[in-house]
Design brief:
With about 130 residues, this protein is mainly alpha-helical. Helix content is about 70%, strand content about 0%. One of its GO terms (cellular component) is Vps55/Vps68 complex.
């Protein structure tokens, strides 16, 4: 059971991740790395929508998980895009390499916090 200390620690790491992404834009006076924040916001939406769209029947499991797999694919694509976009921008010389590194490290901290949050606060289902 996760408590208040876990929530405080996860929020602290999340704040550091967002701080790194914002500093990667502000310190180098190039705000293209803020496009990565859009992928952080949009990434969980396909997974959430596809899990709601699946017709779940308690009495009969048809084994149809195609829509859930599609949602996971789109979420994975957006997560990889959030890491690959700063690399692409740095390769095209639109941002500097230190800005790329700060943006990637901040993104990994944010994604790690989201994964840790779901692991610590997952509800167990009793049948």
């Amino acid at each position: 059971m996760a408590g208040l200390k876990t929530i405080i620690a996860l929020s602290f790491v999340l704040a550091i991740g967002f701080l790194l992404v914002i500093l990667s834009s502000a310190l180098f006076k190039n705000y293209l790395t803020l496009l990565v924040v859009a992928t952080y916001v949009i990434a969980p939406i396909p997974n959430w929508l596809c899990s709601r769209a699946q017709n779940s029947d308690d009495f009969m499991d048809s084994g149809s998980t195609g829509i859930i797999d599609f949602g996971r694919f789109l979420t994975g694509f957006l997560v990889v895009m959030g890491i690959a976009l700063p690399v692409l921008l740095a390769h095209c010389y639109l941002i500097t390499y230190p800005a790329m590194a700060m943006s990637i490290i901040g993104g990994l901290l944010i994604y790690g916090t989201i994964i840790s949050f779901t692991m610590f606060f997952q509800e167990e289902q009793d049948f």
